[in-house]
From TrEMBL:
Aldehyde dehydrogenase domain sequence ranges: 11-100, 102-158
Example of a GO MF term: oxidoreductase activity, acting on the aldehyde or oxo group of donors, NAD or NADP as acceptor
Protein name: Aldehyde dehydrogenase domain-containing protein
Gene3D superfamilies in the cross-refs: Aldehyde Dehydrogenase, Chain A, domain 1, Aldehyde Dehydrogenase, Chain A, domain 2
Amino acid sequence: MEHFHKSPDSEVLANVETLFISISVTTFLYMDIPHLAAFYRHYAGPADKIEGESFSIDDDMYKIVQHEPLRVYTGTASWNGSFLYVDWKIVLAFTGGNAIGIANISITGSAVSGIKVHENAVESNLKQMTFVLGGKSPAIVFKDADLDRALERRVEHDVTMPAQAGTSARPSFRDYLPKPDFPRLKHLSSCDAHTWGDLRIKEPFVADWMSLANGLISAPYQGITTDGVVQKGLFKLAGVNDDHGAPVQAMIDAVNNILLCASEQERRLICHDLDALQWRQWMNPEIYVFKNGVRLEEISDALAEKIHALMRASLSPSGYQRAIGCMKVNAFLGRLVNGRGVLNRDSYNFVLYGEMPPRRDRPWGWQLYGHHLCLNCTVLNTQMVLSPVFMGAEPNVIDDGGSDDGLLLFDTQEARGLALMQSLPQDLQCRIRVYDNLEDPNMPEWRFHRADQRHLGGAFQDNRVIPYEGVPVVEFPTWAQSAVENIIRISLDILPEKSLDQRMREILQHWSKTFFSWIGSFSDVDAFYYKIHSPVIMIEFDHHTGLFLTNKEALPFHIHTLIRTPNGNDYGKEYIRQYNEQAASRA
């Protein structure tokens, strides 16, 4: 049976298994595959010897033969050994002449995972489910145990089944909580957003950065490119009768409610022209510099709720929860460092762009920006562009025992990216990994910035030249290409479902020019950066050093994620250009 692990099909199965449960490829190839092959071979013997006929033979009566399965076989197939546990049940069912049916699906995972699954079930059709929630694989060692042997077996378990080992080996943000005399916290407890911004803008680095930002913002918009030249013909404005999935009427209704609720002065602050430079002044730090629109903490609860209603109408349910998660974590950070006046759930500005009230047949958009959350949404007919998008968190988990305890952000993008990189052939890993270290001495000056660190598509970078890096994904194995597609979909699932499907079709049209790159190491405890980049999409994921926390090296609990639409269609600019061109031709 030893030859089975050498089969190309075995390698495909092994890569799929490790991608989803983190079992090592070696363990699957040399343990699970031979076991499965032996199991199928063993039960192939009795499969043709069960006649399935039930009748009495000596009663001189007319006989009717009734074919029956040998027995009904039931079993549970656990997530942590998918192929192994499923095949154990399938083989026995086939041998006995049974068909395969699924009676129930149970969900195993953290309480946060359970809540997400429950929300999705409620929002669909109230599927019946059972939950087994909580920690995985606790290790209980009794006083009379052989400690050396217990440790040996525990390590053996964690090596063969790392997905069940949890994240205990990863650093905790609580090891990096600042003391009251930490320089970053000076004056923080007594400041609000305005006074804190006034203090920070006086720092030489921030002053120079904002001076550079003003120059970048005032430059005519072109869009992110790989070489300074915009590729034409990538984005086509939909026709009036085309359905591209944007929930435009719900969004328009939500905007109208905002305008009705806002005072006259608030409406003047909120509403800007479609081509206003303010749209490009969003920024993700907590430093309050560009004071556009209204700030959620400075308006009535009623108006703030109307703005949240627009977010709910524009985003997918999971997208809205991710955005709210960024706000909640920002407030959690404010509690951790005693900076509630600067870091809170409402530290965000809201702006509308275009003619108001909005109409279905005219382009318009909205923007929300602040610490670790910046959303830019443009709508025309049923076509929408949701970019630039910045989402981040420091830390990326809430663990204070309150109502949001267990909230965890960006874990799926992180885990899927890491699992993909760990599973790829070594030669591909070497080509994808463009720098060995997150702050690598071989990096050119443009590749690292003190504030943005490795990510390239941050605030004020609307016209940046960003070359492709890494390897075209078409050179990946088929299963790995599917994994990249899955990472893209997960990153973009802030979009409503139909809009997401339309966006994925657009991205897949340029699959041959889609690149995947990596910076840093890729063990289970490492911080890292990855980028997915094509003519029509750029997604970045980056672990950062501490800002309010004290870690001087990048660690996995401070995360920045970005979404950009290169070649001129951030903010829906290319759609707006085509709309204006068509309108001018009709005039």
